[in-house]
Every structure is written in structure tokens, then in C-alpha cells.
Amino acid sequence: MTDTRTSGLSNVETTVLGADEIILNMGPQHPSTHGVLRVKLKLDGERVVDSECIIGYLHRGVEKIAEHRSYQQFAPYVDRMDYVAAVSNGLGYCEAVEKLLGAEAPPRARVVRTILTELQRIASHLLWLGTHALDIGALTPVFYCFREREEILKIFEKYCGARLTTHAFRIGGLQYETYDGFESDVKRFCEDFTHRIDEYETLLTENRIWVGRTKGVGILSAADAIALGVTGPVLRASGVKWDLRKAMPYAAYADYQFDIPTRPTGDTYDRYIVRMEEMRQSQRICLQAIENIPAGAIMAKVGKVLKPPPGEVYHSIEAPKGELGYYIVSDGTTQAYRVRVRPPSFINLQAFDRMARGSLVADVVAIIGTIDIVLGEVDR
Amino acid sequence: MAMNYILFAFFSVMAIGCSILMVTRRNIVHSAVFLIGALLATAGIFLQLQAEFLFVVQIILYVGGIMVLFVFVIMLVNLDVSMRLVQFNRQKWAAGVLALVLGAQVLFALWIGRGELRLPAPAVDVSPKNTEAIGQALFQHYMLPFEIASVLLLVAMIGAVVMAKRRV
Amino acid sequence: MGHLIPPSILPYVLPVVYGVVIVAVLPLMAGYIVLLERKVMADMQARLGPMRVGPHGLLQPIADAVKLLLKEDIIPEKADKLMFWVAPLVSVTMALLAYSAMPFGPAFQIADLNVGLLFILAVSSLGIYGIVLGGWASNSHYSLLGALRSAAQLVSYETAAGLGLVSALLLAGSLSLKDIVQAQYDQGEWFVFSVPIGFFIYLVGSIAETNRAPFDLPEAESELVAGYMTEYSGFRWSLYFLAEYANMIIVAGIATTLFLGGWLRPFPRFADHLPGTSVEIMDAIPGLVFLGVAAYCFWLAPKQPVKIQKIVMATVGGLCLALAGAMAAALFAPEGVRQGVYGGFWFLVKVMAYLYAFLWIRFTFPRYRFDQLMRLGWRFLIPLALVNLIAVATARVASEEWGWYPRITMILATIFTLAVALWLASRDQKHEPATETAGGD
Amino acid sequence: MAPVPLDNEFVERLKVKFGNAIREATLDRKQAIVNVEAMRLREISRYCRDEEKFDMLVDLTAVDWPNREKRFDVIVILYSFQKNERVRLKTHLGDGELVPSLCEVWPAANWLERECFDMFGIVFEGHPNLKRILLPEEWEGHPLRKDYDILKQDTAWVRENLGIESGQ
Questions:
Q1: Most exposed residue of B45, C99, C113, C315, measured as fewest CB within 10 angstroms of its CB?
Q2: Topology of domain B1-83, per CATH?
């Protein structure tokens, strides 16, 4: 009996259950809006007629700070945007600056980076699955997911000392050599993760109530998805077979086999299936990568002070939420002239109104969960 | 025997008191609650008359079913409007006179029958217990009226659904 | 002892004593069911659950009770004071009233009404008022919405649960709970085996009736926050809490009495004796069960980290040992006492098993949406209950008048109802996606 | 590493179609950049989407070059699934000048343009509801402009809404 009377469900205008519409206010403090997101819903009875997302409660002006920090100093800020997938943020930023410099991380660094990013993808999807199931009412999966996620965070902690905002990578390669036992930890995690994920599947996939609550909810067609610029699992669940790791391979993805899960209808159930399949693929990549981590240097010769030649670059990676892009303009000094982050959660959240229209109030909670947003990245 | 009288007095006072309170309340939900009190009191009196099946059905049907719908409707309709209505309208006097006449009639009937006003003795274990007796009566002796009543109810229900359907 | 009390109130003494015992034990039992729930939930979720208060959290319910008593009891400013005060009382009194007809053992029953079952149904249907008035009185939009939703849910699932019960009544023939258990003893078979679908319908209906997951929509809906209980706090809130758990025990009690053979032990007629003694084998089981629990407690006691927890665990072990001794002593006690003690034991074991099913279902299933919940109730459960009723009735007629073998007719009835259930489910399945996009029915 | 002038069929077709609206095309770090005239941005975008199959708007942002007379660069990054290629349209824009909104071409541009307006003050003409998205509505100043100092705050808004004297 969770007693959540602190919810800020403030102003509810117009009459109770009157014939005309009610404005229902969800958030910004609300148990299931995954952070400080406020959604104003216009309801006709139970149906959502119109919705408006009000964001900006967590805006810290990251892009402004970037203009007053050197390239290396800005790297830790990048982890704080999508704090659930800090490692992939770091990878995106470091690779963008390396492209700006025209440098290239050594092969060993690229492989270790791939392994850590894929582990981070599994951790991010696990956190999504746990909270999404909790919103829809399944109390048990959240604890299984956090148990697995704990294993991954332990590996991160052993490698770079931090669990959440890891700042694991440096521009030009890696700061730390992999600790001995790194390969065996990752191998052990991947091995027992296979039957763990089957455990979740048995709990949810054929569960009639789960299917009832997710099938046909928050449908997004492929055309709408592309028009709205939606990327990542949400786009793949709408039937578009596109993944940056295959389309424009970066780090060491080119030399591993993995396939891209897609689903036809693009409803909440399909996004669930796509993300579960993605976790399996990530685990497969990790196993392949662990087989042969090339020896050699872990840091390219980029020197202490980075002064990239003037110009601009756009580089993006496949973050767990979607395409995370960095558009960096350099004016030749040690500080970036402009860093623009393409936040997948921010753009995917824009599709919320298209999905929520016509659905029931209870589905709004499921739809917010299925887009998988992190407010740190939405507000930057 | 004394216990019977005490209980009977309690139930009747409760019934009368609740109905008066029900009529005079300004807040509509309070009057609904007092109506429930009155119905429960009558159920108590049924029990006193050894008609336990009626006692239970009265509670399930009236209080558990119909009154729930009453309270439902009260809560769905906007209450502020009814609060502001003036409590007693102009026909106050006509209603008073009518009540007096009816009261006199009832008292007169009581006065005539005052000799036999006793509570029924607790029925010694009569063979078909109350529930079976009602069951047999309903489904054997009064089969036809029972069917007609059920069809009538069905028609009423369908009518209500059809009317509500169009509005929704 | 009889002569000490004036004869006129003698028939009232025993029920009053039972009443006092039940009202005293109930809050404690409700508290320990909460602990059981949290422990089972924790166990299913790969964690430990409350461990801090007392060994393995055994004293947690007492701590919760004290906390709730000390918590500030806020009344919303524009709330309707009278209704706000009355509502929790209504739901608690209705919950406790239902215990009057509950047969805990052959002798341990406050009042054997000849309309016992109907009385319990009537009283539990009055519980809705506690919820509806509470929701309305707290004068907040969300508690009103939550109250209306839970009232609608209760009303619709009561019909389904009631019809589920009626199918068992057809076999028992009487409304008095004692006669029902007696009928199961005479027929030598629990009704759950002869009318399984009735039991299933009642199980689902009772989960919905007590607002338990996956039907706990009203208070757990994310935007309704805590449904009708939002504005309640402190002791008043714990009254609602107690009412819910009391309702759970009632519903479990009814299911045990009607379907699982009340206080009958698993094989009531199997009366072989232990070689050489007058003890029936089956009667020895309660003693052995308590012995096992006591041994487990003693085995655990030394492993407790803190000294005080060692002592408490040891005392719990001692308590179980005493109970085992009582069970053993009852073996040689006169017939009435033996029946009473073992009847009570088996009744409580079945109630606990039924509640364990509640908890199990709560932690595996997500929550229904409100329209799905109502659709399941009206489109699937109630028609199925009606069909089940007709099937069981024809089966009874077939076996009584036409002389068919009763067991066969019952099985035929069950198969027929199952077929109808599958048809209903498939019709719903086909229909469900359509309603999603077509803007609902 | 310096930007190299770019000349491929895509740029040819653009020049044929739009003439001098296509200012220059360069290649910086192997990424195509096409500088176009602000007023015809919407037509060029529509052309890119329909004929050239750049069907996804990856990002829309701006860069502030205060000491240039047309101070803002509006950057539009497009991606084509078919050709698996990206192109970057860039327009120069003076302070206070209007640029046609791309909402009809790609609905994705809605929030992106609102953020550009919020951070730079660039007005997109034809946008359905151009108002601030990250900062509160009544906030004065556009933070990502170079002349907006990093320590500067809208003290009025902070005092009035948060009731505290702002940081400095």
C-alpha cells in the first residue's frame, strides 16, 4: 500500500466528470513520469483528447557550459545527461572529438569501448523493463532486473571506479587498462544472463494481462516515426530496420555479427519485444568481443592539450534510447565553440502526443514508459 | 420475552427517526445514509418476525444494491446546485394537513386493534424453513407471475441501456 | 459453570465469548498476514523482506501497529466531518460482522444462522458504503474517482462471486454453513472437486471483491494515487487497512467452507488407527506439523546475529512446541474437544493456503485496466457463472431423477462449462483489439 | 583538414533546381555541407525530402557568430535511409530575421525549432506554437547567445517565482 500523497497533482479545472473535458495534470512529481516531466492531458471522460508535455524542470544548460570548458573537462558533463546510459554518452562524445581531431582510437581501446557500451545498453534496457513493468502493475520484474543490473554496475565499478556516471573513456582511447579478470567477469555475466532473460520472458511475454495492457496501446506507424525523427527501439518496433551500429559502424561494431530486431505494428508490446531481443543481441556482441581483445596501446597519441583545427563535425552513435548525435564546432582553441547534442529522448518524447491521443488515461502511464525517456537528456 | 420488546422498540424508533432525519437533511448524502438506516431498521423487524430470508434479502437487495446506485447517482451529479435550493417549497401547509389526516387514520386503526398487539411467539421449528417455503412458493405456486415479473425487469433493463447508450 | 450465569442470558454467553476472541485475534492475524505478504513478496523477488524488527521481522506487525497509532490523523479542511469519521467505521464493522456466521470449527461458531451464507454476502456487500462514503467525504477529485471505480468493481464482481457460490450450494442443499460442511462430509468429497469451475469463478470474484491485485485498480492507479484512501492517515487509514485484510480472511473462510471442506481434515472418512492405539493417523498430522516448525525455530535460534533475536526465536520455538504438545494432548481428549481443536487447525491451514494463492497471484500479474476489468467481469465471468449454474443443475437433476451416475454427470457438466468458457474467451480475444482502436465499446 | 569545396551530382542537381539560392557546398571532415539562402530553406528541404529521399530530419540547431553581420547559422542535418547518407544544410541569418519553419516538411522540427527559439531567439515563421520549451515562458534573454554571459540569470524571474535573490 504505497502511500504517495506527495504527488503534485495540482490544478484540476472544470467540473467533476462533467460532460465537457477535464484538464488532468500529471507531474512534475509523479510516481510514473520517470523524473520531472509534466503532462497536461485534456480528457473526454476516460479518453485522452489532447496532451502537452511541459519539460525543462531539469534544464542545466549543458551546451552553454560546453563553451566554457576544454574538451577533456566537458567529458564528465556528458555522463550527466542520460545518467542511465552514461558510458554510451561518453563514447559518442569522445568519438566525435576524435573525428574533429582526425585521430583514431587504437583497436584494443575500440573493442573494450564496444564491450562496455553494450553492457551499458543491457543495463539501460533492464532499468527500463523494471520501471515499465512496475508502472503497469507487475511488482516482481523490477527486482530481477535490478539484480542483473547490479552485476553490470559491479563490472563498471571494478573497471573505472564509478557505477553510474562513469566517465570511462578519454578522447583518444581509454584511461585505464582492463583489470585482470575483466574477461571472466563479462563472460560469466553473459553466460547466466541468457536464462535470466528467458525468466523475464516467461513472467511477461505470454502473460494475458500484460499482453492486454500493452497490445494495441500507443501505436506509432513507420511513416509517423520517420516524420517525427524518432530513432532507436521505438523506430525499429514500428517496422523500420535501421540501426546506426550497422548503417554507420563505429568503434568495433563492424567486425561482430548481430541482427537488428524489428516488429511490424509499433505498439507498446512490440517495443517491449524489440528491447528484450536487443538485450540478447548485445549479450551476443559482448561474447564475441570477449573472445579476442587485441593487445596493444589503449591511448592514441593526441597529446595533453587538444587544439582541433577550426571546422565542424557531426558524429552519432546508437545509444540505448536512439541516435545520440554530437555536432561540435571548433574555432581552433582548446574550448569548443559550440557543442550541440542530438538528444534521442527529447525527440522521441515528441511522438508522445501522437501515441497518447485516443488512448485511455491508464495507458498514458504505459506510453510514457514505453518511449523510455530520461529527463536529464530531455532537458539537458 | 423482554428482549424482544426492547429490540422491537429500538428498531421502530430507529426506523421512524431515520426517515424523519432523511426528509429534513439539507445535505443529500446525509439523507441517503439515513434512508439506509431506515431500511436496515425494517430489516431488523423482519428478523424479529422469524423471516430471516426476507431480512437477508432486504439487506442485499435494498441496501446493498439499490441504495448503492442511489449513492452512485448522487455522487455523479453535481451537488452544489442542490445545496442552494430552498429546503421547503410553498406547499408546506397542504403537506402538513395531509400528514395529519393520515396520522389520525393510522392511530385510529391502532386504537381499535390495541387488544391483540403482541409480538408473534418464536415459531417452533416449522417444517419447511423460511427459505425453502419462499423458494417453493416462488417457483411452484406463483410460477407465472414470477416469470412475468422477470420479463418486465428485463425489458426495463434493456430500455435503460438503450437510452444510456445513445447519450454516450 | 453453567449455574453461575442466570439462565436467561445463558445462550448469549458463548457467542459473546467467541466474538471477543475473534475481535481480539483479528487485528493480530491481519498484522501477521501483512508480514506474511511482505515476506512472500520478498521471497519471490529475490530479496529478504522485513528483517530488522525482531528475528526475521517477526515483530514487524507490532511495530507497524504502533506507528499507525502514533501517526497524525489529518482531516481535510473542507471534508464532510461526519461522513469522514463514519466511513472507515462502516467498512470495519461490516467486515467484523461477517465473522458471526463463520464456522472456524465444528463447535467454534458464533451463530449458526440457517441463512449463514446469505448473511455473510449481505454484510460484505454493505462494505461498499465504507469505500464510497470515504471517497466522497474526503472532498478530493481523485478519491471520489477511486471510490466510484472500486464501488463499480465490487458490485459487478459480487454477482459473479455469488453465482460461483450458488453452484456449490446446489450440491449442499442448505444455506447454513455447518450443514454445507456436513454435506461435504456425507458425500465424502470436497465440492472443489465436483464443481471446479464454480471454485475458479469464486476465486477470481473474491480477488476482485477485496480490491486485491491484479484488480487493485482503484487505489493503485498511477494517477488516482491512492484512490479512496488518499486523504486518510494514521489510525483511520489503518481501519480501512484492517477492513481489507478482514475481508480477505472472510472471503478465504467462505471459500474453505464451501469448496475445501471447512474443518474437515483432508481424508475425513479414512479412519485407520495407528497400530495398537485409538489414534487416527490423520489426527497426528497437526502435532507433527507444529513439531517440525518448532524444530526449525530452534535450529534457527543460534544463528540469529543479535542476542535478543536469539531469545525471541527460542521463545517462538517454545510456543510451537507447546502447540505441538496441545495437539498431541488433544489426541486423547474427549471427542468434542478433539473435533474442535483439529477442526480449527485444518480450517486455518486451508484459509492460509487460499490466502497464499492471493499473494502469489498478486506478485505475478500486472494490473488490469479499468475497462478490461469490467469487460472480464461482465462479459466473461458472469455468463460463465450462469452457464456453470445451469450445467450443475442439469447434472444434479440427471443424477437424481434419471439415475445417471453422479460423478459422470458432474464431469460432463464441467467439460461443457469449460467448452463455453473457451468460446467466451476466444470471442473476447477477437473482440479486444478491435475495441482498442475503435474508441472502446 | 580545412573545408574542401564539394561538387557532386547532388550539388549539381540542387544548383540546377535552385540556381543562386545554393551559395556554396563544402566538405569538412568528409561530411557534406551545403550553404543555402534562408528564405528558400523550406522549398529546398521539401525537395531534399521528396526527390533526394532525405526522409529523416536528424537535427535542427543554430550557432551564434556575434561578430559576423548575419550572426546566426541555422543548421539542418538530414539523413536518407535509402542512400545511408547525411547532408547538412546551413543558412546565414541576421538577428531578428525570419526563417521559414520546417514543421510542414518534418513534424520533428516542431520541438527542435521551439528549442532554437528558446536558446537563440530565432523566429521560425509559420511554426504552429512557437514558445519557449525548456525555459519558463516569462524568462528574458536567450542563453546560448554568445553575449549572454554564463553567470547571467533573469534575476526578475528568479526573485518573483523562486522568492530568492539570484545567485550573484
A1: C315
A2: Four Helix Bundle (Hemerythrin (Met), subunit A) (1.20.120)
